[in-house]
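Structural prep section.
Before we set up the soaks we want a predicted structure of the protein with zinc ion in place, mainly to decide which crystallisation condition to try first. Input record follows.
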Amino acid sequence: MHFTSYIFIMTFSWTPHRFSGGALALDIANSVILRADPERRVDRLADPENWQSLPDAASTHSAERALFPVLEPVTAEDQPRLLQLREAIDAHFRGRISGRDDPLPLADLLEQLASTFRLGRPASSLLTATALSALRLLSDGNAERLKQCGHCGWLFLDRSRNRSRLWCDMAVCGNRTKAARHYRRRKETAS
Ligand SMILES: [Zn+2]
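Run finished without errors. Recording the tokens verbatim:
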């Protein structure tokens, strides 16, 4: 058990799956795994090693990567700012998806965006790139494309033509859901 989790931690990498959000702001929000489950929740940015590889991975895998082909390492000063921005992004967009009409998370997000832009970091800073991505999500009028994965709870922008996506990533969460359904059906048949 301990051995398994050790291997799991050591082999973490920012795979393309971790950028299934369709927008950098949502990818950053999704750096917390199983956010709603206090027992299994994992914050990928709690590990200092994961900060090192994040900017490169984001400029390689994010759906918006054309807008920030190069991202600089996140400075120690900017790390807590990015975490604050991340929480504000998650709270506002998750609330919006679930239909909660609460203006406070929006106010908080707007304040985070304003204080980020006031810092005047370059466009190649992950902090600025994330804030700009959140601003695009706020102003795009794409509310019906914003969704929460039915399996893992990640936020994503459904860029499919008919807006029919249920999962952040069909290859991961779609298949896991199908497998679980299949397993349940087999169990029911057996009993
Ligand atoms: Zn998912």
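Observations: Residues 149, 151-152, 154, 167-169, 173 surround zinc ion (CB under 6 Å).
Flagged for discussion at group meeting.
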